[in-house]
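As promised in the previous annual report, we have extended the structural survey to additional targets. Below is the entry for Disease resistance R13L4/SHOC-2-like LRR domain-containing protein.
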Amino acid sequence: MEECLELRRLPHCIGGLVALTRLGLHNCVSLKCLPGSIGNLTALKSLSLDECDQLSSLPDTIVNLASLQALEIIGCDSLASLPACFGDLSALTELTINSCDVLATLPDSIGNLVRLTSLDVGCVPMETLPMSIGGLAALRELCVEQCPALHCLPDTIGDLQSLTRLTVAVCHELTTLPDTLCALVGLRKLTICNCSRPTMLPNDIGSMQELTYMDISACDWLATLPDSIGNLHSLTKLNLSNCAEVTVLPDSMGEMAALRMLILSGCTELSCLPDALWQLVKLTSIDAQGCEQCRLPGCIVDLPALTELNLRECRKLVLLPHSISDLTMLMRLELFDCSKLQYLPDSIGNLTALKELCLDGCEKLSSLPNTIGKLASLEKLTLAFCTELASLPVCLGDLAALTELFIGSCDALTTLPDFIGNLVNLRSLVVDYLPMIGALPRSIGSLAALTKLVVGNCSELFCLPDTIGALQELTWLELTLCDELKALPDTVCRLSSLTTLDVGNCEWLAALPNNIGSMQALTYLDLGTCLELKILPDSIGELAALRVLVLTGSAELPCLPDAMWQLVKLTSIDAHGCQERVKQSAQALVDRNLARICGR
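The corresponding structure token record, generated without further manual editing, is:
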């Protein structure tokens, strides 16, 4: 029963539905009570009480539901307590109690739910869990989340010997973790996140020999990790992100033989990675984003399995070791906003497995090494805000596997080199905010695989090469905020695959090519804020696939050509800021086409 907003009570006779196996009461906001006869539903296996705001109590007879296996109580904001005999639900295996804003305690009898395998608790006023929780001998999953007033976990949690997954999240008043936590020797997944007060983990945490995943993220006061963490020989993923007070990691981490993923992003005070890191022969990923103080140990090059290295926002990183070439399996290298990085070592060309290289925000990087052309597997290269980069090396044209190239906000870059046309597998080329670029190289017409070309904020760009018409795979052409661009070459009309043409905010663009109607695949055309545009060619009426036309702010355009009435698929024309005649014609055309589509 969903959104029965006026339902205040269930009839007493509901107890006669003795074959009922599932009852869901969702968003019954006026429901104040359940009848005692509900206990007669002895076949009921699933009961869901979701967003029943006025429900203030449950009848004691609920414990007579001998077959009940799953009980969900969510968002019952008036529910202040559960029946003392709640633990008599002997068949219950799954219990969820969340977002009940006045429920402060669970009954002690909850420990009698000996078949319970999953318990999910999250209520704002709840300060403790009952000691009896240790009696849940079958419990496999325990989630305590969104209990901001919870200040401790009971010592008896260590008695949950069947527990394989424990999550404690967004419990801001939780100050300590009980030492008995380490008795959970069968635990496989441990998550303690967004709990800001704990300053340390239990010393014997290394005794959790079955643990494969540990997430201790956003624990603001956590300063150190116990040495015993090195005993977690089965751990494959360790997440310490946003633990802002952690300054060092124990050398014992080198003994975590199964570790594959190490996440340290946001550990702003971490000064270095442990020298023992080289022992982690299975480690494939290190995420050190935002570790502003962190330096790279020389041993990082001894990680034979490493495929991803994220050093984004490591703003004190001045150089990469020459021996980085030893990371022969590295596929992704992130150096975003490494603002003090001055150069890349020549040896970087030996990273023959590298597929992605991000150099955005490397403000001090003045050149790229000639060996970069040896990155035979490189598919994506981004160069944004490299403000001192004055030129690109010729060898860049040797990147035969490159499919994506982004060059933006490189203020010192005055030209795009001709050899860019050698990138025969390039599919996406984005050139943004290069204020010194006056033209694109003619060789761009050789990019036979190119499907997307974006040129934006190039205020000195005054023309496009006529070779652009050779880009037969191009589907997206965007030329925005190119203030000096006054015309498009006629060859642009040969782009038979083009579906999107955006020349918005090219304020000096005065006209479109006369043969624009030959672009039969075009569905989207943006001419917004082309302040000098005074006429549209009649051939625009031949754009049979056109669906969207943007003319916003093109105030000099006096009228739409009559040929546009042939555009039967055109259902959207934005003519804001245009002359009244243009607005009226645009509205009439759209109304006619929409009427046809709707069969009127």
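The mean pLDDT is 94. The radius of gyration is 33 Å. These points will be discussed at the next consortium meeting with the crystallography subgroup.
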